[in-house]
Write a structure and sequence with these properties.
The protein is of the alpha/beta class. The protein has 2 domains: about 130 residues, Response regulator (Rossmann fold), CATH 3.40.50.2300; about 210 residues, 3-Layer(aba) Sandwich (Rossmann fold). Helix 2 runs parallel beside helix 3. The chain has 13 helices and 14 strands. The strands form 3 sheets. A 7-stranded parallel beta sheet has the order 8-9-7-6-12-13-14, with helices on both faces. It has a 5-stranded parallel beta sheet with strand order 2-1-3-4-5, sandwiched between helices. It has a two-stranded antiparallel ribbon with strand order 10-11.
Protein backbone atom coordinates (compact mmCIF):
# COMPACT_ATOMS: atom_id res chain seq x y z
CA UNK A 1 0.00 0.00 0.00
CA UNK A 2 1.38 3.45 -0.91
CA UNK A 3 2.05 5.91 1.89
CA UNK A 4 -0.85 8.38 2.04
CA UNK A 5 0.24 12.02 2.34
CA UNK A 6 -1.61 15.25 3.15
CA UNK A 7 0.26 18.32 1.83
CA UNK A 8 -0.33 21.52 3.83
CA UNK A 9 0.93 24.88 2.52
CA UNK A 10 -0.62 28.28 1.84
CA UNK A 11 1.19 28.46 -1.51
CA UNK A 12 -0.80 26.88 -4.34
CA UNK A 13 2.44 26.45 -6.30
CA UNK A 14 4.14 24.61 -3.45
CA UNK A 15 1.12 22.35 -2.87
CA UNK A 16 0.99 21.50 -6.56
CA UNK A 17 4.75 20.97 -6.94
CA UNK A 18 5.11 18.87 -3.76
CA UNK A 19 2.10 16.77 -4.75
CA UNK A 20 3.52 16.16 -8.22
CA UNK A 21 6.88 15.06 -6.80
CA UNK A 22 5.31 12.70 -4.28
CA UNK A 23 2.79 11.25 -6.72
CA UNK A 24 5.59 10.49 -9.18
CA UNK A 25 6.78 7.70 -6.87
CA UNK A 26 4.58 4.57 -6.73
CA UNK A 27 5.34 4.18 -3.01
CA UNK A 28 3.55 7.44 -2.22
CA UNK A 29 0.14 8.94 -2.99
CA UNK A 30 -1.15 12.41 -2.08
CA UNK A 31 -4.67 11.99 -0.71
CA UNK A 32 -5.34 15.69 -0.17
CA UNK A 33 -4.01 19.22 0.26
CA UNK A 34 -4.80 22.07 2.66
CA UNK A 35 -4.11 25.80 2.43
CA UNK A 36 -4.01 26.54 6.15
CA UNK A 37 -3.79 24.87 9.54
CA UNK A 38 -7.52 24.86 10.20
CA UNK A 39 -8.28 22.99 6.98
CA UNK A 40 -5.33 20.68 7.72
CA UNK A 41 -6.88 19.61 11.02
CA UNK A 42 -10.21 18.85 9.32
CA UNK A 43 -8.62 16.88 6.47
CA UNK A 44 -6.29 14.99 8.81
CA UNK A 45 -9.35 13.65 10.63
CA UNK A 46 -11.27 12.95 7.41
CA UNK A 47 -8.53 11.45 5.24
CA UNK A 48 -6.41 9.77 7.93
CA UNK A 49 -3.10 10.21 6.06
CA UNK A 50 0.03 8.28 6.99
CA UNK A 51 2.15 11.46 6.81
CA UNK A 52 1.43 15.20 6.79
CA UNK A 53 3.87 17.71 5.27
CA UNK A 54 3.36 21.02 7.06
CA UNK A 55 4.44 24.60 6.39
CA UNK A 56 4.70 27.01 9.32
CA UNK A 57 3.67 30.42 7.97
CA UNK A 58 0.00 30.13 6.94
CA UNK A 59 -3.12 32.27 7.37
CA UNK A 60 -6.00 31.39 9.74
CA UNK A 61 -3.86 28.95 11.75
CA UNK A 62 -0.07 28.48 11.57
CA UNK A 63 1.75 25.18 11.36
CA UNK A 64 2.70 24.86 15.04
CA UNK A 65 -0.86 25.43 16.24
CA UNK A 66 -2.20 22.97 13.66
CA UNK A 67 0.46 20.41 14.57
CA UNK A 68 -0.42 20.55 18.26
CA UNK A 69 -4.11 20.09 17.53
CA UNK A 70 -3.46 17.22 15.13
CA UNK A 71 -1.30 15.47 17.71
CA UNK A 72 -4.15 15.86 20.19
CA UNK A 73 -7.00 14.73 17.94
CA UNK A 74 -5.44 12.25 15.51
CA UNK A 75 -1.68 11.74 16.07
CA UNK A 76 0.02 11.56 12.67
CA UNK A 77 3.68 11.69 11.63
CA UNK A 78 4.43 15.25 10.48
CA UNK A 79 7.29 16.48 8.28
CA UNK A 80 7.79 20.24 8.73
CA UNK A 81 9.14 22.58 6.06
CA UNK A 82 11.49 25.22 7.41
CA UNK A 83 13.47 28.20 6.19
CA UNK A 84 17.23 28.07 6.67
CA UNK A 85 17.36 31.05 9.02
CA UNK A 86 17.79 31.49 12.75
CA UNK A 87 14.06 32.19 13.09
CA UNK A 88 13.30 29.16 10.92
CA UNK A 89 15.50 27.04 13.18
CA UNK A 90 13.75 28.32 16.30
CA UNK A 91 10.32 27.53 14.85
CA UNK A 92 11.45 24.10 13.67
CA UNK A 93 12.73 23.21 17.13
CA UNK A 94 9.36 24.23 18.56
CA UNK A 95 7.66 22.00 15.99
CA UNK A 96 9.84 19.02 16.89
CA UNK A 97 9.08 19.58 20.57
CA UNK A 98 5.36 19.73 19.73
CA UNK A 99 5.51 16.33 18.02
CA UNK A 100 6.82 16.74 14.46
CA UNK A 101 9.05 13.84 13.42
CA UNK A 102 11.45 15.59 11.06
CA UNK A 103 11.94 18.66 8.90
CA UNK A 104 13.22 19.76 5.50
CA UNK A 105 14.56 23.15 4.44
CA UNK A 106 12.06 24.90 2.16
CA UNK A 107 13.29 26.35 -1.12
CA UNK A 108 10.87 27.69 -3.73
CA UNK A 109 13.78 28.25 -6.11
CA UNK A 110 14.94 24.63 -6.01
CA UNK A 111 11.36 23.37 -6.25
CA UNK A 112 10.84 25.54 -9.34
CA UNK A 113 14.02 24.24 -10.96
CA UNK A 114 12.89 20.64 -10.67
CA UNK A 115 15.98 19.54 -8.71
CA UNK A 116 16.20 15.74 -8.94
CA UNK A 117 18.18 15.45 -5.71
CA UNK A 118 15.64 17.47 -3.77
CA UNK A 119 12.80 15.41 -5.23
CA UNK A 120 14.44 12.17 -4.11
CA UNK A 121 15.12 13.54 -0.64
CA UNK A 122 11.49 14.64 -0.25
CA UNK A 123 10.15 11.22 -1.24
CA UNK A 124 12.59 9.30 0.92
CA UNK A 125 12.06 11.57 3.91
CA UNK A 126 8.29 11.07 3.67
CA UNK A 127 8.82 7.30 3.55
CA UNK A 128 11.10 7.44 6.58
CA UNK A 129 8.66 9.63 8.53
CA UNK A 130 5.86 7.19 7.72
CA UNK A 131 7.82 4.47 9.51
CA UNK A 132 8.45 6.58 12.60
CA UNK A 133 6.80 6.23 15.97
CA UNK A 134 4.39 9.07 16.62
CA UNK A 135 4.76 10.28 20.19
CA UNK A 136 8.39 9.15 20.62
CA UNK A 137 9.51 12.63 19.59
CA UNK A 138 7.28 14.66 21.90
CA UNK A 139 8.26 15.96 25.32
CA UNK A 140 6.23 15.52 28.48
CA UNK A 141 7.20 18.85 30.08
CA UNK A 142 10.56 17.57 31.30
CA UNK A 143 12.42 20.81 30.70
CA UNK A 144 14.15 22.69 33.48
CA UNK A 145 16.18 25.87 33.55
CA UNK A 146 19.23 27.17 35.32
CA UNK A 147 17.27 30.34 36.03
CA UNK A 148 14.07 28.74 37.26
CA UNK A 149 13.21 25.03 37.49
CA UNK A 150 9.62 25.85 36.60
CA UNK A 151 10.49 27.31 33.17
CA UNK A 152 9.50 25.12 30.89
CA UNK A 153 26.66 16.05 1.54
CA UNK A 154 24.19 19.15 1.08
CA UNK A 155 22.14 21.38 3.27
CA UNK A 156 19.37 18.84 3.00
CA UNK A 157 21.52 15.85 3.85
CA UNK A 158 23.00 17.52 6.91
CA UNK A 159 19.54 17.83 8.43
CA UNK A 160 18.92 14.12 8.92
CA UNK A 161 19.82 12.14 5.82
CA UNK A 162 17.80 9.22 4.46
CA UNK A 163 19.11 7.36 1.42
CA UNK A 164 16.96 5.33 -0.95
CA UNK A 165 19.14 2.23 -0.66
CA UNK A 166 19.10 2.35 3.13
CA UNK A 167 15.34 2.82 3.27
CA UNK A 168 14.73 -0.12 0.96
CA UNK A 169 17.14 -2.30 2.91
CA UNK A 170 15.54 -1.52 6.25
CA UNK A 171 12.03 -1.90 4.86
CA UNK A 172 12.74 -5.34 3.38
CA UNK A 173 14.51 -6.89 6.35
CA UNK A 174 12.51 -6.91 9.57
CA UNK A 175 14.88 -6.98 12.51
CA UNK A 176 13.89 -8.40 15.86
CA UNK A 177 14.18 -5.72 18.50
CA UNK A 178 17.11 -6.07 20.87
CA UNK A 179 16.00 -6.40 24.48
CA UNK A 180 16.44 -3.52 26.88
CA UNK A 181 19.35 -4.23 29.23
CA UNK A 182 19.23 -4.21 33.03
CA UNK A 183 20.44 -0.97 34.56
CA UNK A 184 24.26 -0.73 34.73
CA UNK A 185 25.82 -1.45 38.10
CA UNK A 186 25.92 1.76 40.21
CA UNK A 187 29.32 3.42 39.94
CA UNK A 188 30.47 1.05 37.19
CA UNK A 189 31.79 3.94 35.04
CA UNK A 190 32.87 6.27 37.84
CA UNK A 191 36.61 5.62 37.49
CA UNK A 192 36.80 4.69 33.81
CA UNK A 193 34.77 7.35 32.02
CA UNK A 194 36.28 10.76 31.22
CA UNK A 195 34.01 11.88 28.36
CA UNK A 196 30.42 11.30 27.21
CA UNK A 197 29.50 11.62 23.52
CA UNK A 198 25.96 11.51 22.10
CA UNK A 199 25.36 10.75 18.43
CA UNK A 200 21.93 11.15 16.84
CA UNK A 201 19.88 12.22 13.83
CA UNK A 202 16.10 12.10 13.22
CA UNK A 203 14.31 12.54 16.54
CA UNK A 204 17.54 13.65 18.17
CA UNK A 205 16.72 17.24 19.15
CA UNK A 206 13.92 16.16 21.47
CA UNK A 207 15.84 13.09 22.70
CA UNK A 208 18.88 15.21 23.57
CA UNK A 209 16.67 17.79 25.27
CA UNK A 210 14.95 15.11 27.33
CA UNK A 211 18.30 13.70 28.50
CA UNK A 212 20.22 16.90 29.19
CA UNK A 213 17.42 18.67 31.07
CA UNK A 214 17.56 15.86 33.64
CA UNK A 215 21.27 16.27 34.38
CA UNK A 216 22.38 18.33 37.41
CA UNK A 217 24.49 21.47 37.11
CA UNK A 218 27.41 19.64 38.77
CA UNK A 219 27.48 16.81 36.22
CA UNK A 220 31.04 15.48 36.58
CA UNK A 221 32.06 14.97 32.94
CA UNK A 222 32.32 16.92 29.68
CA UNK A 223 29.69 16.09 27.05
CA UNK A 224 29.89 16.24 23.26
CA UNK A 225 26.81 16.11 21.03
CA UNK A 226 26.81 15.21 17.33
CA UNK A 227 23.38 15.92 15.83
CA UNK A 228 22.76 15.81 12.08
CA UNK A 229 21.56 19.37 11.52
CA UNK A 230 22.23 22.29 9.12
CA UNK A 231 24.71 24.97 10.12
CA UNK A 232 22.01 27.61 10.60
CA UNK A 233 20.22 25.35 13.10
CA UNK A 234 22.93 24.25 15.52
CA UNK A 235 23.46 27.67 17.08
CA UNK A 236 19.75 28.06 17.79
CA UNK A 237 19.57 24.50 19.13
CA UNK A 238 22.50 25.06 21.50
CA UNK A 239 20.99 28.31 22.78
CA UNK A 240 17.63 26.62 23.36
CA UNK A 241 19.25 23.78 25.29
CA UNK A 242 21.31 26.20 27.35
CA UNK A 243 18.14 28.01 28.43
CA UNK A 244 16.43 24.76 29.42
CA UNK A 245 19.26 22.82 31.07
CA UNK A 246 21.05 23.13 34.40
CA UNK A 247 24.34 22.20 32.74
CA UNK A 248 25.89 24.64 30.27
CA UNK A 249 25.36 24.01 26.55
CA UNK A 250 26.86 25.86 23.61
CA UNK A 251 27.82 25.34 19.99
CA UNK A 252 31.42 24.12 19.86
CA UNK A 253 34.21 26.40 18.71
CA UNK A 254 37.66 25.31 17.63
CA UNK A 255 39.89 24.97 20.69
CA UNK A 256 37.08 24.74 23.27
CA UNK A 257 38.15 22.94 26.43
CA UNK A 258 36.43 19.80 27.62
CA UNK A 259 34.99 20.78 30.99
CA UNK A 260 32.72 19.01 33.50
CA UNK A 261 29.11 20.13 33.23
CA UNK A 262 29.65 21.62 29.77
CA UNK A 263 27.99 20.15 26.66
CA UNK A 264 29.44 21.16 23.29
CA UNK A 265 27.27 20.75 20.18
CA UNK A 266 29.04 20.04 16.88
CA UNK A 267 28.36 22.90 14.44
CA UNK A 268 26.36 21.94 11.37
CA UNK A 269 28.30 21.51 8.14
CA UNK A 270 31.58 20.88 9.98
CA UNK A 271 33.33 18.05 11.83
CA UNK A 272 34.14 17.95 15.55
CA UNK A 273 37.26 16.07 16.62
CA UNK A 274 38.60 15.31 20.09
CA UNK A 275 42.16 16.26 21.05
CA UNK A 276 43.47 15.01 24.41
CA UNK A 277 46.34 17.50 24.55
CA UNK A 278 46.30 20.53 26.87
CA UNK A 279 43.76 18.91 29.15
CA UNK A 280 41.36 17.97 26.37
CA UNK A 281 39.93 20.15 23.63
CA UNK A 282 37.77 19.94 20.54
CA UNK A 283 38.91 20.76 17.05
CA UNK A 284 36.40 22.01 14.49
CA UNK A 285 37.29 21.15 10.91
CA UNK A 286 35.61 21.95 7.58
CA UNK A 287 33.08 19.36 6.44
CA UNK A 288 34.62 17.11 3.79
CA UNK A 289 32.32 16.96 0.74
CA UNK A 290 33.10 13.24 0.40
CA UNK A 291 31.31 12.58 3.69
CA UNK A 292 27.52 12.25 3.77
CA UNK A 293 27.22 13.51 7.33
CA UNK A 294 28.44 16.91 8.45
CA UNK A 295 28.84 16.60 11.39
CA UNK A 296 29.52 12.86 11.52
CA UNK A 297 29.23 10.68 14.61
CA UNK A 298 31.85 8.33 13.16
CA UNK A 299 34.39 11.15 12.89
CA UNK A 300 33.91 12.33 16.48
CA UNK A 301 33.79 8.79 17.91
CA UNK A 302 36.91 7.82 15.96
CA UNK A 303 38.91 10.82 17.14
CA UNK A 304 37.80 10.18 20.72
CA UNK A 305 38.96 6.56 20.45
CA UNK A 306 42.42 7.78 19.53
CA UNK A 307 42.49 10.52 22.17
CA UNK A 308 40.96 8.70 25.16
CA UNK A 309 41.05 4.99 24.27
CA UNK A 310 39.05 3.19 27.01
CA UNK A 311 37.74 6.32 28.79
CA UNK A 312 34.74 7.24 26.62
CA UNK A 313 31.03 6.50 26.91
CA UNK A 314 29.46 6.72 23.44
CA UNK A 315 25.65 6.85 23.36
CA UNK A 316 23.87 6.35 20.03
CA UNK A 317 20.33 7.69 19.91
CA UNK A 318 17.43 7.72 17.43
CA UNK A 319 18.26 8.44 13.80
CA UNK A 320 18.13 7.30 10.20
CA UNK A 321 21.16 5.51 8.80
CA UNK A 322 24.21 3.91 10.36
CA UNK A 323 26.43 6.87 11.24
CA UNK A 324 28.28 6.03 14.45
CA UNK A 325 28.68 2.30 13.87
CA UNK A 326 32.26 2.44 12.57
CA UNK A 327 33.30 4.95 15.21
CA UNK A 328 31.65 2.87 17.92
CA UNK A 329 33.65 -0.13 16.77
CA UNK A 330 36.85 1.91 17.18
CA UNK A 331 35.79 2.95 20.69
CA UNK A 332 34.97 -0.64 21.64
CA UNK A 333 38.31 -1.87 20.32
CA UNK A 334 40.03 0.63 22.61
CA UNK A 335 38.02 -0.55 25.62
CA UNK A 336 35.40 2.21 25.77
CA UNK A 337 31.70 1.63 26.47
CA UNK A 338 28.80 1.98 24.02
CA UNK A 339 25.12 2.45 24.84
CA UNK A 340 22.27 2.52 22.33
CA UNK A 341 18.66 3.63 22.53
CA UNK A 342 15.95 0.96 22.56
CA UNK A 343 13.83 0.45 19.46
CA UNK A 344 10.54 1.12 21.20
CA UNK A 345 11.68 4.55 22.40
CA UNK A 346 13.22 5.67 19.07
CA UNK A 347 11.55 7.86 16.50
CA UNK A 348 13.65 6.10 13.83
CA UNK A 349 15.45 2.89 14.82
CA UNK A 350 18.28 3.17 12.31
CA UNK A 351 21.47 4.29 14.01
CA UNK A 352 20.86 2.35 17.25
CA UNK A 353 19.83 -0.67 15.21
CA UNK A 354 23.15 -0.56 13.34
CA UNK A 355 24.95 -0.61 16.72
CA UNK A 356 22.85 -3.49 18.02
CA UNK A 357 23.21 -5.54 14.83
CA UNK A 358 27.00 -5.16 15.01
CA UNK A 359 26.95 -6.38 18.64
CA UNK A 360 28.61 -3.16 19.78
CA UNK A 361 26.11 -2.10 22.45
CA UNK A 362 27.03 -2.73 26.09
CA UNK A 363 23.68 -1.37 27.24
CA UNK A 364 20.34 -0.90 25.43
CA UNK A 365 18.24 1.68 27.22
CA UNK A 366 14.86 3.41 26.86
CA UNK A 367 15.12 7.15 26.25
CA UNK A 368 13.38 7.99 29.53
CA UNK A 369 16.03 6.03 31.44
CA UNK A 370 19.20 7.36 29.78
CA UNK A 371 19.77 10.17 32.29
CA UNK A 372 19.10 8.11 35.41
CA UNK A 373 21.23 5.20 34.17
CA UNK A 374 24.02 7.60 33.27
CA UNK A 375 24.02 9.26 36.67
CA UNK A 376 23.87 5.90 38.46
CA UNK A 377 26.74 4.44 36.41
CA UNK A 378 28.84 7.49 37.28
CA UNK A 379 28.03 7.04 40.96
CA UNK A 380 25.87 10.17 41.27
Amino acid sequence: MPVKVLVVDDSAFFRQRASAILNSDPRVTVVGTAENGKVAIEKAQQLKPDVITMDYEMPVMNGIAALMEIMRLCPTPVLMFSSLTYEGARITLEALEAGAVDYLPKSYERMTQGNAGLEQVLVERVLAVARSRVGSSSLQSTSSSRVSPATPSSTLSSASPASSALYKQQAKVPIKAAAVSPAPRPGSLAKQCKLVIFGTSTGGPVAIQKILTRLPANFPLPILIVQHMPKTFTGAFAERLNQQCQIQVREARDGDRLEPGLALLAPGGEQMLVDARQGGRVRIMPGDERLNYKPSVDITFGSAAKAYAHQVLGIVLTGMGADGRDGARMLKTGGSVIWSQSEQSCVIYGMPQAIAQANLSDHIVDLDQVSSHLLSALGR
